[in-house]
Write a structure and sequence with these properties.
single chain; about 450 residues; mainly beta; Immunoglobulin-like; 5-stranded mixed β-sheet; 4-stranded antiparallel β-sheet; 3 helices; about 15% helix
Length: about 450
């Protein structure tokens, strides 16, 4: 499309020459960055002299350049004088528009040279400046998605960053997406967002809250994304693209104490998350307060969500045996409650348990847990019998025994004194009676 201020009349001619060049057609109407534009030029002799050896040339300037294989100059052998419009010579030229050209209007020169017929061979040169409109290229793309995977049955944010990578503003954009399998769905809103205006080079973030079906199989799912917008002439256009989103992730476990025999414990391990756990290994790592004999790990295989298994280990409590002098063990030992009848000790220091598994993406994950356990004390430790156990159990009653012993000793001394005093009185009475008897005899 030619600019409104372009002149095609004789004012564009030099020395009142007879050659007049006009652009009669342009395809497309506005040049597009990165695309060729074709110009149809009419060359007409409106003068009173015939012309020969006419040369018409295009002088491209940025953002226009030569198209490979297409000439920038063309020749016309002869033009009669006083031509009508229908008699004009028609030439076609192709130019390439720079892919980074900004939207706007640009000048372009058409230069013609010709020789007058007859005995005179005077050369006539004409330069015509036209204006070509360049329309920006409308194009948008999804540059990034903020997530590569989402978990099952868990509300998670999903963001698309849309960038206008073209040269023209985008108007009335509509962004929508769909999972053909219906596994991933939006929550709190539908799957459509609107953007009224987006300048070239600018980006906009559209946000959704999504959730994956709890019963879906872990794996990679396709999102079909559609971007529709209005172009320069308010025509509706759309861009379709796809994005991949992995459904499935990590899981969680619940570990509880199951049962205990002397020197052995059993743990119940349950998959309480929403994803399957592959190649599960349960381990009791080295830690204070406990000693593991034999293997410290047990491979239990795969655990579906909701499944559980039992893992057993040979574990002895070094707390109950009094091994070690760390404050934590001493505290745990002081908190132990002994039951002499059942010979069981309740150990308060938690047992550390480590669970390793492979998730649906093939990554190895480690989960640490702490479990409260009740252990049967081994012989000769927490349930000792005999002099040492008796001495230990009586130690706390020593003050009471001392008081009782003092009381018994005092009572014994009191009774001995009283008994001695009574015997003395009895002897004195016996002597008096003897004196009385002797006096009676003398009488």
């Amino acid at each position: 499309m030619l600019g409104a201020g372009t002149a095609f009349a004789a004012s564009g001619l030099i020395n009142s020459s007879s050659v007049q060049a006009n652009v009669t057609n342009q395809n497309p109407d506005a040049a597009r960055p990165g695309e060729p534009v074709e110009l149809t030029v009419s060359v007409q002799n409106v003068g009173s002299n015939d012309l020969k050896n006419i040369n018409a040339a295009i002088e491209p300037q940025y953002p226009f350049s030569k198209v490979s294989g297409e000439p920038l100059e063309k020749q016309i052998s002869y033009l009669n004088a006083r031509q009508e419009d229908n008699d004009a010579a028609v030439l076609k030229f192709k130019l390439m528009t720079d892919s980074n050209a900004s939207e706007g209007t640009y000048d372009l020169n058409i230069v013609t040279t010709a020789q007058k017929g007859g005995s005179s061979s005077k050369t006539i040169k004409t330069t015509k400046t036209i204006q070509l409109e360049v329309r920006g290229k409308e194009y948008a793309q999804i540059v990034t998605i903020n997530k590569a995977n989402i978990d099952l049955a868990k509300e998670e944010p999903l963001e698309f960053i849309i960038t206008n990578t073209g040269n023209s503003p985008l108007k009335n954009m509509v962004i929508s997406w769909k999972d053909p399998k219906g596994v991933i769905l939006p929550v709190y809103s539908d799957n459509t967002k609107y953007v009224k205006y987006l300048e070239p080079g600018d980006s906009v973030t559209v946000s959704y809250s999504v959730m994956a079906d709890v019963n879906a199989n872990p794996g990679l799912y396709t999102l079909d994304v559609n971007l529709s917008f209005e172009d320069y002439e308010s025509n509706a256009k759309s861009i379709q693209t796809t994005a991949g989103l992995f459904v499935g992730g990590e899981t969680d476990f619940d570990v509880s104490f199951s049962e205990s025999d002397p020197g052995k414990i059993s743990l119940s391990v349950a998959n309480v998350g929403n994803n399957i756990a592959y190649s599960v290994k349960v381990s009791v790592p080295e830690q204070e307060g406990y000693r593991v004999t034999g293997s410290s790990s047990s491979i239990v295989g795969n655990l579906e969500k909701g499944d559980y298994t039992i893992a057993s280990f040979n574990v002895a409590s070094t707390q109950a045996a009094g091994e070690g002098k760390s404050p934590s063990i001493a505290k745990a030992r002081g908190a132990a409650v002994e039951d002499n009848e059942s010979s069981v000790s309740t150990v308060s220091l938690p047992l550390k348990v480590q669970i390793e598994y492979t998730d649906a993406k093939g990554e190895r994950i480690t989960v640490d847990k702490a479990v409260a356990v009740q252990m049967s004390a081994p012989e000769g430790t927490a349930t000792e019998t005999g002099p040492r156990a008796l001495s230990s159990s009586l130690g706390s009653y020593t003050p009471y025994f001392v008081l009782i012993l003092v009381a018994i000793t005092g009572l014994f001394i009191y009774r001995k004194k009283k008994q001695a005093k009574g015997e003395k009185k009895s002897r004195n009475k016996g002597i008096g009676d003897q004196k009385y008897d002797s006096g009676a005899t003398r009488d």
